[in-house]
Amino acid sequence: MERGKFLDLVIAGPDMSGTSTQIGDIVNYFKKKNLAVRDLRGTEIDALFHAEIFRLLNSKFSSVSELPEHIRNYFLFKTYKLMSGGGTNQDLQIASCVRNNVTTYIDPNSADVWIMEEPTKRGAGQLNRTIEQNRSQFGDEMNPIAAALAHQAYRTDEFLRFRKAFRGNNKIIIRSRSEESACYQILDSQFLQNGISMEDYLNLPGHKIAFKNSPTNIFVVCGPEDWTTQDYLKLKSQRSNGRAIDDYESNAEYQVLVNKRYASNWIDELYEKGCAIHGGIVPEITRFNIYDSKGQIKEKIISKLETIL
After folding, report:
1. Do residues 148 and 69 touch, judged by C-beta distance below 8 A?
2. How far apart are CA 23 and CA 34, in angstroms?
3. CA nearest neighbour of 261 among 307, 301, 224, 211
């Protein structure tokens, strides 16, 4: 099986590894090369911004957040009106890069580079961000099996709506995490006894799609394999910057397990198994030191990216 000419790059790592910063650096890199970048991260409204119906608004901007305030307010008003059935024959549905009767069309060729994230802030990803990562807020306990089920659901959604078209049109895809978040969900006899089994994880419907259409490359920013809870807690105190901490981030032992999986060949073996079962190609995995400065990580990531390109 051969790859297309597309690049499907995942930026991964345990919590506090700085995936948003690294994606920002990559976005700026491509913009400096005068490539058109569109950012699909965010809610369904953020996705609809890229639809053909709004091409007069979106042609010069990568995302809603870049719009001047008066234009943004107009876009939000117009979107609300169309989504609520504003008396036209152009009522908005959910966005996709497929022309059909159930979605609003985005042209995959309207950009060279597409930015995505996991979990998404729409569909089943919203369930993950709101419930699965914050079950304590609802008087419940962390449930990795429920999380795995929700994750696999939006992987089907995002692939059929967007990634399939991007790959088919040889686009550059930059994603924050992917099915490698199995690091957070697959059982461990000592530290994650309520996790999902490797076999069950790999055979969920969304993961059949995910491993058949695996990333071309994964950049992992992580600590050493022998990271301790004290190491994680120190890093969290330096990087949390007063932000709200979810259940995953507050569990130091859990984060140490996740980091060990990212830092070791555990994740390599995950892809070897998943791709062998479902017919995908094992991605190239490159690791970066979580203790390097932001500038050092940026320099190393861009250097590796240029080598790939």
Report:
1. no
2. 17
3. 224
Q: How many CB atoms lie within 10 A of CB 242?
A: 5
> Omega into 119 within 30° of 0, i.e. cis?
yes
Residues in a beta bridge with 93: none
Q: Where are the beta strands (DSSP E) in 183-270?
A: 217-222
Triad 132, 134, 136: Cα angle to 5°: 115
pLDDT 10s digits, 237-293 = 998 877 789 999 999 999 999 999 999 999 999 999 999 999 999 999 999 999 999
Tokens 């608004």 found at: 57
Enter the tokens of residue 184.
């957070």
Radius of gyration of the chain (CA): 19
What pLDDT score does 3 carry?
A: 60
Checking DSSP bridges between strand 284-289 and strand 104-105, what pairing results, if any?
unpaired
Going 19 to 20 to 23 to 29, the CA torsion angle's sign is: negative
- In the numeric block, the tokens 């953020």 are attached to 46
User: What is residue 243's DSSP assignment?
Assistant: P
Query: With contact defined as beta carbons under 8 Å apart, do 201 and 273 qualify?
Result: no
The Cα–Cα gap between 63 and 78 comes to 16
For the chain, list residues with pLDDT below 70: 1-4, 84-90
Residue 60 CA to residue 67 CA, distance in Å, equals 9
What is the DSSP secondary-structure string of 118-132? Answer: SS-SSHHHHHHHHTG
Residue entry with tokens 């059982």: 187
Contact between 59 and 134 under an 8 Å Cβ cutoff? The reply is no
Phi and psi dihedrals of 15, rounded to 5? Answer: -60, 150
Cα 226 to chain centroid distance, Å, stands at 26
